[in-house]
Structures
1.
Amino acid sequence: MRTVEHTRQGEAAQVLTLREEPRRPAPGPGPGPGEVLVRLLVRPVHPGDLVGVEGMPGQPEQESEQQSAARIPGVEGMGVVESVGTGVHAPRPGQRVAVFPAPGTWSDFVVVPAALAVPVPDGVSDETAALMLVNPLTLRMLYRALEDALRGRTGPVLQTAAGSSVGRLVSAAADRHGLELINLVRSTSGAGKVRTLHPSQPVIATCDDDWQGQVRRHAGARGVQVVLDSVGGAMTLELSGLLADGGTLVSYGQLGSGTTPLEALPLVARGLTVRGVSILHWMSRTAEERAQDVAFAQDLARSTPDLLQVAGSYDLADFKAAVEHARRPGKSGTVLLTTPLTADSGQGAAR
Ligand SMILES: NC(=O)c1ccc[n+]([C@@H]2O[C@H](COP(=O)([O-])OP(=O)(O)OC[C@H]3O[C@@H](n4cnc5c(N)ncnc54)[C@H](OP(=O)(O)O)[C@@H]3O)[C@@H](O)[C@H]2O)c1
């Protein structure tokens, strides 16, 4: 049994370590009532996982419940149900499942409530299944925030980091729903990639001196109604300047550097709204909404697996190389950490 863990926040390459134990699964209690033990095969390296390891710039280090307790990164993954606790009728041992929210997926095993182990549809690969939940569910949350902010209007909407995995889902949804979307990326080569995928959508590179002028020309007299932003930092001020009066900045990530003080934003004078969206709040949505979101994610994985692109795969023990790749500029898709399905895998995979 292998586990990647850390006992303090800091540069991932320095604070993360691999713990190997001869026994499997984890020593200690198995799945309790209503829980399942999942033998994980694939899990992603999301930017948010690295924030959990390294902390947010400018924020105090998160205190763990027990100072010396090791924390295991990862909130999503896919694998095979190894065993189930009392009262669990589904999923069954041997079934392939995707799990979220499942804190600690950078390990060979994780225990989750049975309700959070989502069956992987037939025909969906393990790699696609490992990416089936977090980003598609984030798309659903962003889309709800977008609809609230537009209040029946049509756009235009501006998104940053359009070449990111989430950005590509937003662009595909815009094509599907006829949403007027303007894409921002940071490089000319990144702009070329997004243009190839979505030829009908404008793409602007922020390395161009007049990128803000280009956005204004595309937005026209109405101005940008909503910004979907995962860059933040110093760019927040420039993005708010592109919004029409009464517009909304939806913030859902912090890829960029620098800061913008709240006082610098023309919130009062121009009636702007700033709204945060986080997948960490998905569990507080109603059970019906969550069921719809999961059905959407399963359908997306089945029908358009190309939208859940894999940038590269690494064995769990090669987590340092995986983290380096996840940070590499110009990558397309998400980096995965894998565990081979070995002969001692218990119930094994029904694949
Ligand atoms: N709020 C939530 O619940 C939630 C959920 C999922 C993701 N997110 C956030 O969404 C963002 C994208 O996640 P992802 O998994 O889609 O990322 P990803 O696939 O790893 O892609 C990262 C993208 O960000 C771009 N980028 C990196 N640093 C940048 C910077 N300083 N300025 C502009 N662009 C930059 C990269 O551009 P290049 O191609 O030029 O390198 C790349 O296109 C992250 O901030 C993540 O934390 C938030």
2.
Amino acid sequence: MIRFEGVSKMYGDSCVVNNSNLHINQGEIVALIGPSGSGKTTTMKMINRLIDPTEGRIFIGGTDILKLNVVELRRNIGYVIQNIGLLPHMTIADNVALVPRLKQWDENVYRKRADELMDMVGLDPETYRNRYPSELSGGQQQRIGVIRALAADPEIVLMDEPFSALDPISREQLQDEIVYLQQKLRKTIVFVTHDIDEAIKIADRICILNCGEVIQTGTPEQILRHPANDFVKNFIGLHRLSQTGIMPEITEIMIRPVTSKPNRGLTEALNNMRKQRVDSLLIVDQNERLLGIVGVWEIQNKFQNEALTVGDVMNPNLPVVLYNQPLSEAVNIISRHQVAYLPVIDDNRRLLGVITRAGLVDVMAKQLGATQPQRVGGVQAC
Ligand SMILES: Nc1ncnc2c1ncn2[C@@H]1O[C@H](COP(=O)(O)OP(=O)(O)OP(=O)(O)O)[C@@H](O)[C@H]1O
Ligand SMILES: [Mg+2]
């Protein structure tokens, strides 16, 4: 939908956006996030040509925006500017209907539209339509800023820190409203924020900027799990990975299993256990496929019979977990079956490792001790 191709913006000698190749798909919310001065507003303003790039090109729906009429382009892109920007001498209804009026919609249609939008964000039109911006609270003004950008039903909406001036409660409320509205409206939204929690909550994809460069783009989950470098790690908070709901994958915490082939004798198996300091062995075939488990007590019970192998005494029925299941599933199985560890297998039943109770305790302890992610403030020296 929106495509940057090698876009740079210079002011004199300083490059405030450097070779950006941002892609934004139709119907997604992309959050631009980065420290103050990292080029977020500049990136956004280049989309509706409030600023023109020094180099590179920007396409909307495949058309170079330089080929579009600039007034038309702006009227077809909703814009919530940093610091609200309501017009103080116009009523709320007139502020909301600003672009529809410029587009010469019929008065009845734009009045009705303004009322609908006010309803949508919980502001009763009867009460608010004839007030002036100064007669609204900060949160109410920001709601108006958001619906004004939606009034003419644009496909693209640019939102530059639309909730920055709000207290945490109103902010959360408005974030929920945006998520809810987006489920219905499916606009293409570029959303600038300083707040990683806000980005994670709202965005389909997050684009992290620093000093005019795109450092990483990905879904919130991808960025949390695989931060590209130390800057991103610091940005999302070092312990974020182990925070609520975000567990490592099974393969990240599994350890090497102690195994035996089924044709080994019982004495050899006991020696092996003693050496490795374990009380059971997992039995695997030549292809490392899991056949069963044998514990020290089974061996002891059958030890008199010299002809037996571990394959004869093993228990083939044991709980297992697939490597690509969520870790929470491993936790469930371990507690349901009261086992000390759980073999991790692949789709061919090949044994990849084991998850131990002790390993899970470690993960949980880290979660409980996790620190909050940082908010990014201040201006970075680029
Ligand atoms: N008209 C201008 N002339 C010169 N430099 C400018 C101009 N506009 C912006 N800049 C510089 O470009 C850099 C990027 O600015 P931009 O407004 O894009 O940052 P931002 O990421 O939106 O920051 P913030 O989070 O503070 O809003 C900053 O260093 C800023 O000082
Ligand atoms: Mg800005």
